[in-house]
Structures are given as structure tokens and as C-alpha cells.
UniProtKB/TrEMBL annotation:
<keyword id="KW-0449">Lipoprotein</keyword>
<comment type="similarity">
    <text>Belongs to the outer membrane factor (OMF) (TC 1.B.17) family.</text>
</comment>
<dbReference type="InterPro" id="IPR010131">
    <property type="entry name" value="MdtP/NodT-like"/>
</dbReference>
<protein>
    <submittedName>
        <fullName>Efflux transporter, outer membrane factor (OMF) lipoprotein, NodT family</fullName>
    </submittedName>
</protein>
<keyword id="KW-0472">Membrane</keyword>
<dbReference type="Pfam" id="PF02321">
    <property type="entry name" value="OEP"/>
</dbReference>
<keyword id="KW-0564">Palmitate</keyword>
<keyword id="KW-1134">Transmembrane beta strand</keyword>
<dbReference type="InterPro" id="IPR003423">
    <property type="entry name" value="OMP_efflux"/>
</dbReference>
<dbReference type="GO" id="GO:0005886">
    <property type="term" value="C:plasma membrane"/>
</dbReference>
<dbReference type="GO" id="GO:0015562">
    <property type="term" value="F:efflux transmembrane transporter activity"/>
</dbReference>
<keyword id="KW-0812">Transmembrane</keyword>
Length: 467
């Protein structure tokens, strides 16, 4: 009896490792990549790559606090965490299939004899163990596939967090941009009202025409319409930001008033392409490549026979306490020949291979698109910064020109139209500068997302099998 139990328990260890020869070595897809991207800038101080630390590089305490809070309260991120847990549990179930399956039962029967001799009780109990020997590695590859999916799900969660931080920062600055435009509209409305009053006064004395009055009214109504347009955009952005925090629309989580920053984060020059290895979406895609490769190996192993072993240990007795006084044991085995259904197996293998080949092509395209995103963001960053210098000079010149035309008009040597045109030019210059600063902030977010986080600190990701 003891030898039987020991033999059954040792079976998994005696047969383990027999299927490793069917495991295909993972080879990363071949892609053509540059060594680095060029960007103007100097190295900056060390900054953490975590999502919350990422926001600190903008030196805005309100923004940093907001990002930390949204990572704690966002529903999409919480749902992603639950999906990770589900994938981990599924991987645990796949691993459990490789272990011996134990079951046990106990039962009793009460018998009454018709010859009035009385009653009799009998008890039966036993334990069963079943095990499918993983001779060709099918179960191991199925387990690996589930584990790689769990790894990919965790990367999906990291990608959700990265996207969430980016969305929060963009909405934060969208609110600030709306507030800047609202302030400009208010200033322009006040200026237009003063101009209209002056023109109306001049009309009463016959020194201003109806055309000039209507022109002044038109400028005022344009600024008033813009004001309400940006008020609506501000409210929409505030509501969009609020619902990220598991709150209904109505509460104001942030209301920044200004876009201007003393300095913008510096991007180091010569960023290595290896930075892309930090992008969670690319890591998730590669993990799913490994998953599909494991599925293909499992499909190959399905062509080979499977060996199933079943053992049982039990006993019976008229007394429950002595149930195992009369033990019995049995060991059975069975071999299944799946190649008898060869056509279906070939279809399954072809399907797994096609899915893997498709994933390879998709991964390469995703990587190229990621490289394009980084390149475009770096190029746009430089162009926006260069453009900002000229916009600032343009605004300064536009203000001077407006003052000159105002003095000329009041002195009678200039026309009302020239003065109005100069005002329009100055307003356009103010709006263009605000738009440029806003675009620069959005560009930094896009660049950081394309790189998988802040590039000031780079730790290469070590690749290997999932633990």
C-alpha cells in the first residue's frame, strides 16, 4: 500500500521536463531602427520615471497633486487592475492543470433486513488522484501562454496609467488655456467698449461716421461671442477632468489661470531608441507575441499521444472509525491518440501559426509608428520653441504699432480703419502666443507618452520568461 502511494506521488517528478524539446526559442522580430533621435537640449537632474513623478518635471504643485490623486481614484485604472488580477488567476489555473488532481469521498449505507434480524451500517471512503503526463510540453506551453497574457495585462494597466496622466495634464492645460483666452476676451471687450463710447461721442459732434460706429460695434460683438465660446469650452474641460476622479460633473478639481511657466522641461540630446522599450503598449504587444508562440507550440504538441494516469486509495468497514482497516488501491493508465483527428489538428496549428505571423507584422508596425510619434514630437517641439520667439517679438511690435495708430487717429492724422486693423493685429498676436505656449505643453505630454515616460532617467528593461 505504501509503495503504491509513493509511486503515484512521484509520477509528476519522473515525467517532468520531457516536453521541453518542442519549445520554440523566442526571437524578437527584425526591425530597422536608428541608433538615436536628435534633440537640442542638455542633461537634466535625475527624475523618477513613475507616472506621478513624471508630472513633477513641470514644477507645478497643483498639477502634481492632481496627477497623484487621479491615479488613486480613476475607474478605468481600477478596471485595468481587475483585468490584471483575472489574467493572473487564469495563469494560476493553467499551472494547476499540470499538477495531480486530488479528490475524495466518504459514504455510508444503512441496511434493514426483512427477516427482522435488525439493521446494518457500512461505510466506504477513498481518495482518487489523476494526472496527465506532460510528455510533449502541451500543458507547459499552455501555462506559459497564460502567464505571458498576465504579463501583457499588467502592461496594459501601465499603459492605461500613462494615458490617464497624459489626459489629466492635457485637460488641466486646456482649462488654463481657456482661462487665458477668457481673460484676453475680457480685456478686448473693455477696450472695445471704450472705443465704441469714444466713437459715439464723436458722432454726436459730427466727427465720426455711422460706418465707424458700426465697425466699433462689430468689434465688440466679436469679442463678446468669443468670450462665451471659451466659457463653454472651459466648462466642458472642467467636467471632463472631474469624471476622471470618480466624481459626477459639477465639482471643480482644478481651475488654473495661467499657461506661462518660467521654464519648460528639458529634453536631453541624442535620445536612444532603446527608450521605446519602456513603452507599456510595446511591452504588452511583445508579451502577447510570446503568448501566441507558446500557443503554437501547444498546438504542435497536440499531435502527440497523451498519457493519463489515475490512482485510487480507499477502504470500507462496518464502523466509520475503522474504515481504512480494509484498504484497496488501484492504478490505471490510458493513452489517447489525437492524430486520429489529424485534419482538425492541422487546422488548429495553421491557425495558431497565422495568428503569430499576424502579431509579428502588427508588432513591427506598432514599433515603427512609435518611432514616428517620437520623431514628430521632437521635431514639433523644436519648431514650436523657435516659433515662440518670433511670436513674442511680433506681439511687442503689434502693441507699438497699435499705440502709434491710436495717437494718429486721435490727432486727426490717421483713419479709424487703420486703428481698428492695428487692434485686430495685436489681438491676433496675443492669441497666437497663447496658442503656441499651449501647443508646447501638449507637445511635451505627447513626447513623454511616446517615450513611455520622462526620458531623464533610463533603465533598460531586462527581458526573460515570466516568473
Amino acid at each position: 500500500m505504501r509503495n503504491m502511494v509513493i509511486y503515484i506521488c512521484l509520477i509528476p517528478f519522473l515525467l517532468s521536463g520531457c516536453g521541453s524539446f518542442l519549445q520554440t526559442e523566442y526571437i524578437p522580430p527584425e526591425v530597422t531602427i536608428p541608433k538615436s533621435w536628435n534633440s537640442t537640449g542638455n542633461s537634466t537632474s535625475e527624475i523618477s520615471l513613475s507616472a506621478a513623478k513624471w508630472a513633477e518635471s513641470f514644477e507645478d504643485a497643483s498639477l502634481t497633486k492632481l496627477v497623484k490623486l487621479v491615479l488613486e481614484r480613476n475607474n478605468d485604472l481600477a478596471a485595468a487592475g481587475f483585468r490584471v488580477r483575472q489574467a493572473q488567476l487564469q495563469a494560476g489555473l493553467a499551472y494547476n492543470d499540470m499538477l495531480p488532481q486530488l479528490s475524495g469521498a466518504v459514504g455510508g449505507v444503512n441496511t434493514k433486513y426483512f427477516d427482522k434480524s435488525g439493521f446494518a451500517n457500512s461505510y466506504v471512503g477513498g481518495f482518487n488522484i489523476s494526472y496527465e503526463a506532460d510528455l510533449w510540453g502541451k500543458l507547459s506551453r499552455t501555462r506559459d501562454a497564460a502567464m505571458w497574457e498576465a504579463v501583457a495585462s499588467n502592461e496594459d494597466r501601465m499603459s492605461t496609467a500613462l494615458s490617464l496622466v497624459g489626459t489629466t495634464m492635457k485637460l488641466y492645460w486646456s482649462i488654463a488655456y481657456s482661462n487665458v483666452r477668457i481673460d484676453l476676451c475680457r480685456s478686448n471687450i473693455q477696450s472695445s467698449e471704450k472705443t465704441l463710447k469714444r466713437i459715439l461721442a464723436q458722432q454726436r459732434y459730427g466727427s465720426a461716421s455711422k460706418l465707424e460706429v458700426n465697425k466699433a460695434k462689430q468689434e465688440l460683438t466679436i469679442q463678446q461671442a468669443k468670450y462665451y465660446s471659451y466659457m463653454q469650452k472651459r466648462q466642458e474641460n472642467i467636467s471632463s477632468l472631474t469624471i476622471l476622479f470618480d466624481l459626477p460633473p459639477g465639482k471643480i478639481m482644478a481651475d488654473p489661470k495661467n499657461l506661462i511657466r518660467s521654464t519648460l522641461p528639458v529634453i536631453p540630446a541624442g535620445l536612444p531608441v532603446e527608450l521605446l522599450s519602456r513603452r507599456p503598449d510595446l511591452r504588452a504587444a511583445e508579451s502577447r507575441l510570446r503568448k501566441l508562440l507558446a500557443n503554437t507550440d501547444a498546438a504542435k504538441a497536440s499531435f502527440y499521444p497523451t498519457l493519463s494516469l489515475t490512482g485510487s486509495l480507499g477502504g470500507s468497514s462496518a464502523e466509520l472509525a475503522n474504515m481504512l482497516d480494509n484498504p484497496f488501491a488501484a492504478l490505471a493508465s490510458g493513452i489517447a491518440f489525437p492524430f486520429l483527428n489529424l485534419y482538425k489538428l492541422e487546422l488548429n496549428l495553421d491557425q495558431s501559426t497565422a495568428e503569430y505571423d499576424e502579431a509579428v507584422v502588427s508588432f513591427k508596425q506598432t514599433l515603427y509608428e512609435a518611432m514616428k510619434e517620437v520623431g514628430d514630437s521632437l521635431s514639433n517641439r523644436k519648431n514650436l520653441a523657435d516659433k515662440c520667439k518670433y511670436l513674442m517679438e511680433n506681439l511687442e511690435a503689434a502693441r507699438k504699432v497699435e499705440n502709434i495708430y491710436e495717437v494718429r487717429y486721435r490727432s486727426g492724422s490717421g483713419t479709424f480703419k487703420d486703428w481698428m486693423d492695428a487692434q485686430d493685429t495685436r489681438r491676433t498676436a496675443e492669441e497666437s502666443l497663447a496658442e503656441n505656449v499651449y501647443a508646447q505643453l501638449l507637445n511635451y505630454v505627447n513626447l513623454y507618452q511616446a517615450l513611455g515616460g520622462n526620458p531623464d532617467q533610463y533603465n533598460p528593461v531586462k527581458k526573460g520568461n515570466p516568473a
